Amino acid sequence: MHEITSILIDLFIIFTAAKIAGALFTRLKQPSIVGEVLAGILIGPYVLGWVGVPNESFIHLFGGDEASAHTALMLTLDVLAELGVILLLFFVGLETRVSELMKARGRALLVGILGILFPFAFGFAFMQLFGRTDLESAFVATAMVSTSIGITARVLGEIGVLHQREARIILGAAVVDDVLGLLLLSVVSSTAGGGVDIWQLLLTIIEVALFFIFVVLLGTRIVRRYSIRLERAPIQNAPLFVTLVVMLGFSALAGAIGLAAIIGAFLAGLMLSEAKERYGLERQAKPIYEFLVPFFFVVTGTKVDLTAFRDPQVLGLALGVTALAIVGKLVGGGLASIGLPTRSALVIGTGMTPRGEVGLVVASIGASFGVISGDAFSAVVFMSLATTLLAPPALVWLYRGRKAKGDESQKDSESRGSSHP
After folding, report:
1. DSSP sequence for 31-67
2. Cross-strand bridge partners of residue 340
3. pTM for this one?
4. How does DSSP classify residue 195?
5. Domain residue ranges in the chain
6. Do 204 and 186 touch, CB atoms closer than 8 A?
7. Which residues pair with 102 in a beta bridge?
């Protein structure tokens, strides 16, 4: 039982550190996720080594193989982190009405497409200037395109703007971004494996289209029609039970057809949003949310090895990739937001900036194929972390600035009104 105790201690440290760091950053008027990610870096195996480092009893369980023990321990933490981000995106979907999301569909689609084209082009060209192979350049560029919906969604939720137009555009674009980014990853991965499988790519596109059509056109109607039967279901806490089943089922289905599980979770929430007020789904699932979601952000932080950046060449590569990843999203979001106020365009571009776990996943796949070198891998990790840390406070600042400007304009208007009775 000592092996289980080791895992429980890690979970205790992660959860406690997340709550303390989150509360501290909230008091500093910053998003709690910044504190949670930094807490992960601090307590992770590369700094204090409080978590992610198997003890002797756990290593003994794997016949003394420390590498296998470490892999197993991190897999346990990764499962909880994945459940956390699945629940996070489910809540985002739950708070988003299909009708509201569809209002931003044209703009969101354009933001998503341009938000992929520019970062990919910038990243590929930059890696080519460093003399890297086409395949390595393509993998790094692919890691730069997809947005981590989880990071932006948490910030937008914390500052209470999920129902504003920019937030709808960002979330809609991020879904497009993730789907197209995964299709791009499938092409690059197929090339690494010996060629592009066109038929498999077409099949994936069809599966994605059918998934979205089912949720938008049929799923919401099914919920409206049959949700009333939950009141007569002979199951304790039937609404919560059905909610969790649908969330996990959609997540598993998304993974089975080659999408990120978080897309399935988002669509599950979107489908059940029609019944959330009737059954208080958010209130019932909130305790589970508060427990699991912080694991995602802390575990992401534990995977950052700061010692790799002592090499000036690695640091230069990392800074270049990070700068272009940010500029690419700002340019893409800005061009797609022509006709909107400048600050709205900046909000949209900034909201598409964080890469979070998405960049790490792409880098890991590239490393598994042996096409990404150690310094390129470190650069992608740095980019994922930097964009994750920089975007939340930038979003908060942009929204605060707009609110302050609006309040000032309102005061001026009231002043002019009072001077002309």
Report:
1. -HHHHHHHHHHHHSTTTT-SSS---HHHHHHTTT-HH
2. 338
3. 0.71
4. S
5. 2-407
6. yes
7. none
Contact 160, 100 (CB under 8 A): no
114: CB partners within 8 A, 6+ apart: 331, 332, 333, 335, 336
Closest by CA to 150, choosing from 87, 85, 93, is 85
Check whether domain 2-407 has CATH 3.40.50.2000, yes or no: no
Question: With the C-alpha atoms ordered 151, 254, 368, 376, is the resulting torsion angle positive or negative?
Answer: negative
Task: Walk along the chain (421 residues) in steps of 10 and give the mean pLDDT of each run.
Answer: 74 92 82 82 87 74 74 81 85 70 70 90 92 86 83 78 81 77 69 62 71 73 62 66 85 77 80 68 81 85 78 88 93 84 85 78 73 82 83 82 52 48 46
- The type of residue at 314 is V
Residue pair 295/15 in contact by the 8 Å Cβ criterion: yes
